[in-house]
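Researcher: I'd like a candidate sequence for this fold, 861 residues long. If you have to choose between options at a position, lean toward the conservative one.
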């Protein structure tokens, strides 16, 4: 007898309901209203909208007890009435309500019925599956009226299309890419996938039972492509400032992206990376690069700004970095570079280490770092001091020092210095502080500025605005510093020397990006260079700045034979006329056919995997080679693919399966994986690939009566011998079976039940909502069943309810039984015509403890 594998296809709908993006295209706002009534004066009362107080629903008339009552019962509005005895208003003779003409569907027997074997809805005619927006096509509209929905039966993952569902029996809705409900089907602009969801309404099952419409949703997807293409600073921003060590422009900048349909959209400043803004040096048409990632798409832009010259202002730049230092420990006061005035201060007990660490950030390349091994504070109470506060002092070592910044010259010039560093914390995931301290004339330290650093190498700036020596140290444990730059803006000293040690950039080598290159080549051909980008890199030793130039000439590639498959290294050589530089990249040769790098297989559309009602339980289908189709993976337009051999293997079977011959092979119910050999040919070239094709075979036929009984044994593994019940489990999380853990075996149909004495039982199976200590059975198919529960109460002279449900939170209670507590007597709790839903779950328990001996399941015609 064939084992049955239950085939489930889960349709999941994840709905996120909440505050949407303002102005989200394609989704109109739907008002909700307060519960209380608001008076609208003599005209009546209404409900005010919860979102806009100037909106309300339709005005309703006031409600009074009689024509002398002055106060509305609903809203409290007070009216004026004349005193005296009013003339009674005659009670109108009610107009007879005509008896409506019966409409098909009004009576229970006339309701619209779903077809037998309903498993899903099939949604069609939603229009284009993918829509590209542009300047000419600003938005997309889905024609809701044109949508067609059909009943689907059989395998839920690949249902068979049946009759069209009447429009009156459908609830069709649209969700935007954020899974928010759309009121409008027009003007869709959001980038992403919209989901059309169809559900049944006013439809019963084929047997007339109530139908859970949520079990049979049909969906269709429409992708609207409207990606971000660029980013810019919004109008109204400040785009110029006078020379200063303080940046006053970027705090005024806000940003917007442009999408493919040319719509503009704000983007938060925190999500935008702005390239270095040079506010110290004067100049026009300076450019700062802008970068943001929107919906996984990196967009770039630029902003042009001006720094106005300040009369008599001269910029002096000093740079020092770890790259030029010798590796090892600094245990004294050591100047970094030559005549920089930037010192690393270490001691024998608190050293600053120099070691190798390769990092590239903001176009700068670092190969070494200076490591502060821990906090430089003498007292923990000095941590987190505010700017302007004094501290007790720094430890001996573990800090950097900048000597005599902003010293007044003999000519009386004054200055401020912008200190720029690149730094990170010393431990992954740690967040620490690097603080700048000013050394007073009395030797005391004052907090000048502080920055919080994490484990990403970033640029940090400080402003030293007084004439003094400054010290930079970690407040709380180790930090690593790669680079120092002092930009001193001297005001009033004409013709001061610019001491910027630019140096000459030197070649570093080449970098190769083959991510866009072809990875599959024709046999015995030289490797193509299509899509390979070669970049020549130079570095400025003084500034650590990198210059990159994409080169297209002077390049040679090593030849790679593609006669054998696998990974191949390609050597790239570039000559700048003086020296040669090499780099490598790897290609994967997967095919000896040009433009082909794989194949896929599938079943032909006419292969039937679900047999009709009434088929015999041992019915089979035949799979032949001609039922298997193959397609190439690649960009060739001339290659062809053919299945030349195939084998199949049942998931729950042993061995390698049986070869599928040209005559085919019979397959019973179950789940299979077919391994097919695909031959791809193009002229004289050919390649072979192995592909896997999934196959699920469902046998739909008459079900046999099956009995479940408990047998005392070790272990809890289920033996499944009949096709009605797929699996059985007992939840013992709040108790245990009285006679030990049970093994549940399905007894062959026709076994005598009534009068049979069972030696073992499932004990204490009880719960009002069947979430604990319940017997759970998974049936092979939805439908109506007669379920007989052979059970006995566990206490004498008690009255308890047997409970059966089709889900863990649904309760259906049978008639109450009173049964004596005798060892050899049980009652039969019968549930006639009980509907089991498409999920196949059937639970049996009680509202209090009962002992279950057997469960008999019989399909109801």
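Model: Candidate sequence:
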């Amino acid at each position: 007898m064939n084992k049955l594998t239950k085939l489930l296809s889960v349709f999941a709908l994840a709905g996120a309901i909440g505050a949407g993006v303002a102005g989200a295209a394609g989704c109109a706002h739907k008002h909700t209203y307060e519960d209380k009534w608001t008076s609208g004066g003599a005209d009546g009362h209404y409900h005010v909208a919860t979102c806009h107080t100037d909106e309300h629903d339709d005005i309703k008339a006031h409600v009074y007890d009689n024509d002398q009552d002055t106060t509305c019962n609903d809203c409290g509005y007070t009216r004026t009435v004349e005193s005296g005895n009013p003339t009674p208003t005659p009670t109108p003779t009610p107009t007879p309500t005509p008896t409506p003409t019966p409409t098909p569907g009004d009576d229970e027997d006339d309701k619209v019925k779903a077809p037998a074997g309903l498993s899903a809805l099939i949604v069609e005619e939603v229009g284009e599956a993918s829509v590209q927006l542009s300047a000419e096509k600003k938005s997309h509209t889905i024609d809701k009226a044109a949508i067609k929905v059909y009943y689907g039966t059989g395998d839920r993952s690949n249902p068979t299309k049946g009759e069209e569902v009447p429009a009156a029996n459908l609830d069709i809705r649209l969700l935007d890419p954020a899974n928010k409900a759309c009121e409008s089907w027009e003007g869709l602009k959001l980038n992403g996938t919209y989901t059309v969801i169809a559900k049944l309404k006013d439809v019963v099952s084929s047997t007339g039972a109530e139908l859970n419409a949520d079990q049979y949703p049909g969906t269709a997807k429409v992708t609207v492509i409207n990606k971000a293409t660029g980013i810019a600073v919004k109008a109204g921003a400040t785009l110029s400032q006078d020379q200063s060590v303080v940046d006053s422009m970027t705090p005024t900048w806000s940003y917007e992206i442009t999408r493919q349909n040319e719509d503009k959209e704000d983007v938060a400043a925190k999500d935008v990376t702005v390239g270095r803004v040079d506010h110290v040096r004067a100049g026009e048409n300076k450019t700062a690069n802008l970068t943001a990632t929107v919906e996984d798409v990196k967009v770039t832009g630029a902003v042009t700004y001006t720094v106005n010259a300040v009369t008599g202002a001269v910029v002096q730049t000093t740079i020092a970095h770890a790259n030029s230092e010798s590796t090892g420990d600094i245990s004294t006061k050591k100047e970094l570079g030559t005549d920089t005035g930037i010192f690393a201060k270490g001691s024998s007990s608190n050293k600053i280490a120099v070691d190798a660490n390769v990092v590239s950030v903001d176009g700068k390349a670092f190969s070494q770092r200076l490591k502060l091994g821990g906090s430089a504070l003498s007292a923990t109470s000095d941590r987190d001091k505010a700017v302007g506060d004094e501290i007790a002092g720094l430890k001996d070592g573990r800090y950097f020092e900048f000597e005599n910044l902003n010293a007044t010259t003999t000519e009386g010039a004054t200055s401020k210095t912008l200190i720029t560093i690149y730094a990170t914390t010393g431990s992954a995931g740690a967040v620490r502080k690097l603080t700048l301290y000013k050394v007073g004339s009395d030797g005391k330290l004052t907090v000048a500025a502080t920055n919080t650093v994490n484990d990403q190498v970033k640029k940090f700036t400080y402003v030293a605005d007084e004439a003094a020596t400054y010290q930079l140290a970690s407040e709380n444990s180790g930090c690593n510093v790669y680079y120092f730059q002092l930009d001193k803006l001297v005001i009033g000293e004409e013709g001061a020397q610019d001491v910027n040690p630019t140096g000459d950039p030197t070649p570093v080598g080449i970098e190769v990006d083959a991510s866009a290159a072809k990875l599959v080549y024709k046999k015995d051909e030289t490797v193509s260079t299509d899509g390979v980008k070669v970049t020549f890199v130079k570095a400025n030793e003084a500034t650590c700045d990198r210059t990159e130039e994409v080169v297209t000439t002077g390049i040679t590639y090593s030849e790679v034979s593609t006669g054998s498959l696998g990974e191949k290294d390609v050597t790239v050589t570039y000559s700048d006329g003086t020296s040669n530089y090499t780099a490598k990249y790897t290609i994967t040769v997967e095919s000896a056919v040009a433009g082909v790098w794989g194949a896929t297989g599938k079943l032909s559309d006419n292969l039937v995997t679900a047999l009709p009602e009434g088929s015999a339980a041992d019915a089979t289908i035949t799979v032949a080679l001609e039922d298997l189709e193959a397609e190439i993976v690649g960009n060739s337009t001339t290659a062809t693919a053919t299945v030349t051999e195939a084998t199949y293997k049942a998931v729950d079977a042993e061995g390698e399966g049986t070869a599928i011959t040209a005559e085919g092979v019979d397959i019973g119910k179950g789940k299979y994986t077919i391994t097919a050999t695909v031959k791809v040919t193009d002229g004289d070239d050919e390649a072979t690939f192995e592909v896997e094709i999934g196959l699920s075979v469902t046998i739909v036929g008459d079900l046999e009566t099956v009995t479940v009984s408990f047998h005392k044994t070790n272990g809890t593994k289920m033996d499944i011998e009949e096709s009605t019940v797929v699996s059985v489990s007992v939840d013992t999380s709040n108790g245990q079976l009285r006679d030990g853990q049970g093994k549940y075996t399905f007894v062959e149909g026709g076994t005598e039940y009534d009068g049979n004495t069972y030696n073992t039982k499932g004990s204490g199976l009880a719960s009002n909502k069947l979430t604990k200590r319940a017997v759970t059975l998974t049936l092979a198919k939805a439908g109506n069943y007669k379920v007989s529960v052979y059970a006995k109460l566990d206490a004498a002279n008690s009255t308890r309810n047997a409970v059966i449900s089709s889900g863990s939170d649904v309760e259906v209670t049978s008639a109450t039984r009173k049964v004596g507590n005798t060892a050899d007597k049980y009652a039969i709790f019968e549930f006639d015509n009980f509907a089991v839903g498409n999920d196949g779950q059937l639970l049996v328990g009680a509202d209090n403890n009962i002992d279950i001996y057997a469960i008999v399941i019989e399909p109801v015609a």
